[in-house]
Amino acid sequence: MKEDIAALNTITDVILSYKRKPSPSKKRARADEDSEFSFYEFFAGGGMARAGLGVGWKCLFANDFDFKKAATYADNWGSAGFVTKDVATIQAKELPGRAGLVWASFPCQDLSLAGMGAGLKGDRSGTFWPFWDLMKKMRAEKRGPRVIVLENVTGTLTSHGGKDFTAIADALADEDYRFGAVVIDAAEFVPQSRPRLFIVAVADGVEIPSSLIGDDASLLWHPKALQVAHLRLAGKAKAQWLWWKMPAPPRRNSKFADLVEENPASVFWHSTAETTKLLNMMSDGNLEKVRAAQKTGQLLVGTVYKRTRFDDDNEKVQRAEIRFDDIAGCLRTASGGSSRQLIVVVKGDSIRSRLISSREAARLMGLPDTYKLPKAYNEAYHLTGDGVAVPVVRYLAENLLEPILMKNQMKAATPHATHHPVRAKQ
Q1: In percent, how much of the chain has pLDDT > 90?
Q2: What is the model's pTM?
Q3: Any idea where the domains of the chain sit in the sequence?
Q4: How far is it, in rounded angstroms, from Cα 413 to Cα 71?
Q5: Which residues pair with 40 in a beta bridge?
Q6: How many angstroms separate the CA atoms of 338 and 33, rounded?
Q7: Of 86, 267, 306, 384, whose CB is crowded by the most CB atoms within 10 A?
Q8: Are 303 and 342 in contact (CB under 8 A)?
């Protein structure tokens, strides 16, 4: 497979557009510990939210309990300001200044469809509560963040019959945050199917540009599951709700095949016998997809996940399910072989297969090739599969977070002007 270097460079430029030069106002903000464009990054992993926010933002504090992820974070961003320990043990005094933004991609295992359904009471996703206790302490010290972003799987909307989402909404409202949520699929920006929920909350007294609030839900950002979750809200949470309004993203012009490595360093191509075994795990319908790809005579790349299904005798069997729609399946946290995505490269009679490489996984998250990954394959795959897509963070920052904080910065610079904060529509 020969990579088209010119095309790949163009795609990389699009994906990494968040690295544009910061405006002069943001350059000034970086030197100020209380800057509007400063942030804390909780459950930071390898710092993908930091990558998406870009060089115009200053990280004051970052945290993750995983020492392996912390090592990768330090390799890419340095260790200054990073604390490796359980969020429940962090004290408010450890957080410097007052951050304009707090980003928290709290663990999703107990909220995802693949989890055990423990929800916010689970050992992992339940870490939201000690994180929120810390935010409440910061508020009590008059250092509460102006904006908070909570990122998680869309299963948060339906976990425990919607009670988990309602609990988060009530917690935000009780601390006088106005808030709304959007569902963004990373496939709008990179060739990976990865819908995620983003709850964006703004502190009372922080002015919100009226152009960022819609009169009602929009199917572009507020799918049916989110609208149903909103209907469950009551009292103050209902009153504090906002329908965030953003423009449609530009059309993605990359496909998964553009990101595939011919000679990956982290994985090996399967033997003929291994590829045959993988094909034998496919149902008739999935094998037909492979045959159809062969008939085109073109070089096509499909992605495969192994899943447990019931056969005609109602017995559980492991199936290999393939897709040829130019996007990869959602990267998942690897807990076993079935969690790791494979690729199948077809051109006429030639069929090759292997695990997706760690660099390909990073590219699917919008990370540049200069990003330093763990050397161990499983660690690298876990890091990316557990992260947030970089271009999605950049899009949110550009279209919501920065306009809000910039307006607040301008308000602070003109204290004698009269302002009328935008409130949630009743």
Answers
A1: 75
A2: 0.86
A3: 13-252+387-413, 256-384
A4: 39
A5: 61, 102
A6: 45
A7: 384
A8: yes
